[in-house]
Amino acid sequence: MKVIIVCDSCGNIVNLSSSPVNEKAYFQRVAQNIFSINENDIEIDVDMDITPSLENSFVEKLSEADDEKEIYKILDNEIMDNVSVDVETKLKSLKIECENCGESMTVEF
Ligand SMILES: [Zn+2]
Fold first, then answer.
1. CA proximity to 74, closest of 107, 82, 105, 39
2. pLDDT of residue 105
3. How high is the pLDDT of residue 76?
4. How far is the CA of 100 from the centre of ligand 1 (A)?
5. What is the pLDDT along the chain (109 residues), one digit of tens a residue?
6. C-alpha 95 to ligand 1 mean position (Å)
7. From the CA of 38, how far away is ligand 1's center (Å)?
8. Is residue 40 helix, strand or coil?
9. What is the enclosing helix (H) or strand (E) of 59?
10. Inter-residue contact 29 to 72 (CB < 8 Å)
């Protein structure tokens, strides 16, 4: 498979072809100094769902803690074992910019 990026303004062009070995294309290798994708221009939707699933032993430890300092220590060490975190990410958009003339295009997904 191949993706061709062409700048309408100055004619900069890049052929992004997939490797026959792993079907991956390497943007940086091919497009370096021709086109860029700025990490700050990539928009990602993050949907995080945190569900507590408390172990009895965890609750017991907390209830037996002597002071706030100990509670924090217990939470620091064990909180991640007592919640389930479900993170879903989705690429929303990315911006491709011509390194020669600055023309750009934002691809929305
Ligand atoms: Zn250009």
1. 82
2. 94
3. 93
4. 5
5. 999 999 999 999 999 999 989 999 999 899 999 999 988 888 999 998 988 888 899 999 999 999 999 999 999 999 988 888 899 999 999 999 999 999 999 999 9
6. 14
7. 16
8. helix
9. helix 56-64
10. no
Which residues, 6+ apart, have CB-to-CB distance to 60 below 8 Å?
A: none
Question: Which residues make Cβ contacts (< 8 Å) with residue 65, sequence separation at least 6?
Answer: 71, 74
State in Å: Cα 90 to ligand 1 middle.
Answer: 29
Instruction: Show the tokens assigned to 101.
Output: 């003339």
Place of tokens 């991640």: 80
Q: Which residues surround ligand 1, an ion (CB under 5 A)?
A: 7, 9-10, 12, 98, 100-101, 103
